[in-house]
Amino acid sequence: MFTLSDPSTMQMDIIASEAEFVEMSPGMYGLVSLDLNHFLLTYSITSISNVPM
């Protein structure tokens, strides 16, 4: 689970290391994933906009 503190700057509080589909702002969604590889924490954000409701 991820909590985005500011979607415009992509700052977030990391609660658990897993992939999560989140609503970053109204109408904009993102797939956020974390990977711990050799003590280096990396994360990627793929933004998906204009998702039909």
Q: Key features?
A:
5 strands, 53 residues, two-stranded antiparallel sheet, mainly beta
Kindly summarize this structure in a few lines.
The protein has 53 residues and is an all-beta fold. The chain has no helices and five strands.
Compile the SSE list and pairings.
Layout: E1 2-6, E2 11-14, E3 20-25, E4 28-37, E5 40-49
Antiparallel strand pairs: 1-2, 3-4, 4-5
Question: Overall pLDDT, averaged?
Answer: 60
- How many helix segments? 0
Structural class computed from helices and strand pairing: mainly beta
Rg result: 12 Å
Task: Assign an overall shape.
Answer: rod-shaped
Between the first and last Cα atoms, what is the distance in angstroms? Answer: 22 Å
Low-pLDDT parts are none
How would you describe this protein?
- The structure is a single chain.
- By secondary structure, the protein is an all-beta fold.
- It has one domain.
- Helix content is 0%, strand content 66%.
- The chain has no helices and 5 strands.
- The strands form 2 sheets. The protein has a 3-stranded antiparallel β-sheet with strand order 3-4-5, with no helix packed on it. A two-stranded antiparallel sheet has the order 1-2.
- The chain is rod-shaped, with a radius of gyration of 12 Å.
- The two termini are 22 Å apart.
